[in-house]
Specification:
Layout lengths: L3 H52 L17 E5 L4 E4 L3 E5 L20 H6 L1 H9 L3 H11 L7 E2 L5 E9 L2 E13 L5 E9 L1 H53 L14 H50 L6 H25 L7 E4 H10 L8 E4 L7 E4 L1 H18 L4 E7 L5 E7 L33 H11 L3 E6 L5 E7 L4
Parallel strand pairs: 9-11
Antiparallel strand pairs: 1-2, 1-7, 3-5, 4-6, 5-6, 6-7, 8-10, 11-12, 12-14, 13-14
Length: 499
């Protein structure tokens, strides 16, 4: 599935479906539990009413059972025999026994009834005469139980589910089983039921509504998600089409449309346009670089070729020092271009620890042919150590000194000091004409030479300061230019310390 809209709609539909199914099942379970508990409470009330009558010694055949059609009742003794059932009960299950025919009540034991005493009235007198009062008293104690009252179990009844056929109709019931003790000490169990039809009807209604409503709701969710996602992604499609057109035409001046919203898509469009702007500037810079490099290379090559052709035709006219100078200039320019290419490729400098104070002294000591002597100021509190490439840092110091020599009138000074917050600062100052404030950033561009502000000679191609700044940035530092107190230019190279 390659469409974001389809994936979003499917994902939203699946999430909503899972949530609704979970919520629906929870509702059904809670609803069923509540309705089942209500049926159990009704069954318990009926069971306690019947148990109360048994505790009062009401005969089995005279038990009052309310709503027999809705509340079937079954009474069993300790042996599981059925002693009483509701009138219209035809079948039952779930109470422990499915018998519905009451067994006859056990007959009284012989000699325990009052009628036998009446029939044998004469025997009573003879018994008295013969001292038989004890036997007569024992028989009377079995026939007449001690007056009292039974009890109903106060514990929570046992609940079960089952079925019952009442008056020819079979239905599901919730049964409550409760124990009662008669005044004679007989323990009976009352099974009273309450119908579960209301619970089944309610659960069935809710389940049917969910089965019908859930697919419809999921269709609505899928449709709404599809439409909303389509509307949200419409600007993205516009950005894609414009980027495809830019790629096909190679016209980096074009820009993608930016929606008026302030959401992520709008930020994506703005970032894309910023990227296109940076890319266009980079391509233009590369084009200018290639054009300027070709121009700078053409001059020494043309001069060298001319001298060689003249020397070939007229050996006595060969300007050998000039040819060597052009070759050196060409070699230096090629080295500068190679270093810039490596820097543009993201080459990282090494992590060698370099003492800038010693490096500055070494570079100045090698400049024996300068027209102006360089004054060095390096405190004895060093070393001033930084981490990086010794060769590239030496190139930066050499380029700054070359630039100062080229434009100074009578003095060039280089100093090294520790920065306020750590690091090292190398400052190169000259007493020349200085750099105008509005040109102080432009001089760090490649192949830029300020003809009006500084004297142009044949030695520079406008790459020295650009290389110096690129190397400084690669080393985590910065290179800036400001006005010197002597009236010239002051270049400051700030690098982080080796620690």
């Amino acid at each position: 599935m390659r469409s974001v809209r389809a994936r979003a709609a499917l994902g939203a539909t699946v999430v909503v479906a899972l949530a609704l199914i979970g919520a629906g099942l929870s509702v059904l379970l809670v609803l069923r539990a509540n309705l089942t508990d209500q049926a159990g409470l009704q069954a318990e009330v009926v069971a306690r009413e019947v148990a109360g009558q048994l505790a009062l010694d009401v005969p089995y055949d005279r038990l009052e059972m309310r709503d027999e059609e809705d509340h079937p009742v079954q009474v069993t003794d300790e042996d599981g025999r059925v002693v009483a059932v509701s009138e219209d009960l035809r079948a039952i299950s779930g109470t422990g026994t499915d018998r519905i025919t009451p067994v006859p009540a056990p007959a009284p034991a012989a000699g325990t009834s009052g009628s036998g005493s009446d029939d044998n009235g004469g025997d009573d007198g003879s018994d008295d005469d013969n001292g038989g009062d004890d036997g007569s008293d024992d028989d009377d104690s079995h026939a007449t139980p001690a007056p009292g009252r039974g009890e109903v179990d106060s514990d929570e009844p046992d609940f079960t589910n089952g079925t019952a056929n009442v008056d020819g109709e079979t239905a599901d019931y919730r049964f409550a089983s409760l124990r009662a003790t008669t005044p004679a000490g007989v323990t009976l169990t009352v099974h009273a039921g309450a119908p579960l039809a209301a619970e089944q009807e309610a659960v069935g209604t809710v389940r049917g509504a969910m089965l019908i409503g859930l697919p419809l709701l999921l269709l609505v969710v899928a449709g709404v998600t599809w439409l909303v996602t389509r509307r949200a992604l419409r600007p993205v499609e516009g950005i894609r089409r414009e980027m495809a057109a830019i790629t096909a035409s190679e016209d980096l001046s074009r820009r993608v449309p930016e929606p008026g919203s302030r959401d992520e898509v709008a930020r994506l469009a703005r970032t894309t346009n910023e990227t296109l702007t940076a890319l266009e500037a980079s391509v233009d810079r590369q084009r200018r670089f290639v054009a300027d490099a070709s121009h700078e290379l053409r001059s020494p090559i043309a001069s060298l070729r001319t001298q060689l052709e003249v020397g070939a035709a007229h050996p006595e006219l060969l300007d050998l020092p000039g040819a060597v100078a052009d070759t050196v200039r060409l070699q230096a320019l090629a080295a500068d271009l190679l270093l810039l290419a490596r820097l543009d490729a993201g080459e990282r400098p090494g992590r060698t620890v370099v003492d800038l104070g010693a490096l500055v002294r070494e570079e100045v000591s090698q400049r024996t042919g300068d027209r102006i002597a360089v004054t060095v100021s390096v405190p004895d509190s060093g070393p001033f150590e930084v981490a990086g490439s010794r060769g590239q840092l030496a190139r930066v110091i050499g380029n700054l000194l070359d630039n100062a020599e080229r434009h100074a009138r009578s003095a060039v000074t280089v100093s090294v000091r520790a920065a306020e917050r750590g690091g090292v600062v190398v400052a190169v100052t000259d007493d020349g004409a200085g750099v105008p404030p509005d040109e102080r950033e432009r001089i760090f561009e490649r192949f830029v030479r300020l003809d009006d502000a500084r004297t142009r000679d044949d030695g520079g191609a406008g790459l020295g300061l650009a290389i110096a700044r690129d190397v400084a940035v690669r080393h985590g530092g910065r290179l800036t230019v400001d006005g010197a107190r002597e009236g010239g230019a002051r270049f400051e190279l700030r690098l982080p310390g080796a620690g």
